[in-house]
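Quick bug: GUN4 domain protein output formatted oddly.
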Amino acid sequence: MEEISDLISQFQTESEKNQLQLVPQLVARGESGLEVLMNFLHSRQSEPVNLVMGKAYQALLQTDNPKVQEFLKTYFPTGVVPLKSERNIDYQPLQQLLAKQDFLGADVLTLQKLCEIAGEAAIKRKWLYFTEAENLPKTDLSTLDQLWLIYSEGKFGFSVQRQIWLSLGQDFAQLWYKIGWKSGNNWTRYPKDFTWDLTAPKGHLPLSNQLRGVRVIASIFAHPVWSTDSN
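Here's what came back:
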């Protein structure tokens, strides 16, 4: 069994991909491993959030260690992803669902939040028109995407789906198969046949935008948020 000092050394120097794999090993070491993860998060508080920070936060959140819970409450009371909104939308409940990997609950709430951003008419009908999707504020769409991306180890999110779509020559018919929304001639049945964990195909979630056809997701993929660095 590796010494804790070796694990710490690896965690500090390895690539992001390898760091993600080391997080569960550090948790398995108990108090000393949890201390490493807390120090890691604390030292990066002012830095842009990345996948390892999301994984470390998730791992700490799942422990029943009082010291760890006090640390999270003090330094990351809402989570590690900044919850920016131009419409004063509260994304904390979504952050908590995703941090706990309740992807079904998070998907339902994501659609609710998209409707909240779009306004009263969308809230009432409980789904978006493609014209509403076109006009979503960049800040809010970026926040939603970041939440899905960070708490799925980079596997889920609108930007992930969009990258796959671009790699397929913007062919939606191919995209549905690639991300597991269609098999043979059959659409994946909601919710029971979707995969609500990280064993799902890359880009599998969120899916609520797709249930009303292609126009909404096409509007999201064409949104100006993806062509600018200023979120």
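Actually, after a second look the formatting is fine. The chain has two domains: 4-75, 92-227. Closing.
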